[in-house]
Amino acid sequence: MGTTAYGDWIRDFEAARRERAERGDPEWRTGVPLHPAIRRSVQRFQVGEDGDGAELITKAEAAGDAEYASAVRMFVAEERNHARLLALLLASGGAPVSASHWSDRVFVTLRRALGLRLELLVLMIAEVVALRYYRALRDGADDALTREVAGRILADEQRHVPFHCHRLRRALRPLPPPVRVLVTSGWRAALAAVALVVAVDHGPALRRLGVGRRRFVAEVVRSSGPIAATMR
User: Fold this and answer.
1) Coil/strand/helix, residue 4
2) What's the predicted TM-score (pTM) here?
3) Local structure of residue 192 (DSSP, 8 states)
4) DSSP 3-state of 99
5) d(Cα 46, Cα 73) in Å, to the nearest integer?
6) What is the rounded distance in angstroms from the CA atom of residue 163 to the CA atom of residue 7?
7) For 196-206, what is each residue's pLDDT tens digit?
8) pLDDT over 50 (residue 63)
9) CA-CA distance, 208 to 89, in Å (whole number)?
10) Which of 95, 84, 168 has its CA nearest to residue 125?
11) What is the DSSP letter of 173?
12) HSE on the CB side for 124, CA within 13 Å?
């Protein structure tokens, strides 16, 4: 990817959209055997995916880069599609979506109170945790439908993290190197804290998926090193 333009990212988002349209939805079936712990966990993640993204889009538009704002709108559309896929997965298992969850309310409040740069840092915490969660769901779920839905979402998230890194690298570049190190070190510490909270909150599901709490946190923290280096 280039260091200034977002045309390549727009083309990537458009290619992913065309691929989704050609592939169509998974074969939704009723009576999918969602284990209670997995069901509760998916309900909580579905709430987190189900934001309208209006605040982020507004901030992206205010940044004055039309290509970046367009790419952000495409990112938000993919996040909304994740919420839709998870809702339909829950429906296939005879489970409703949750109205809200405290962790999502905290993230939304933080993100809305911050400028674009700090909002993206908070958003990246959720995205990096999601990478490990959806990989666990893809690899450890009992049924093929859950594995397929998780795999589709994971493929998107694997593009989202470098997309946000690209913007954050530009946003942090004007800061002195020691400040950049301080910012990314603080981000890693916050990510570790959030990963621990998620591991506790989703512990029964993670055990069912073959990933213990300690392993989940350790792998999230380990993955954050290269990401922080890229942002710097």
Assistant:
1) coil
2) 0.90
3) H
4) coil
5) 19
6) 12
7) 999 999 999 99
8) yes
9) 18
10) 168
11) T
12) 29
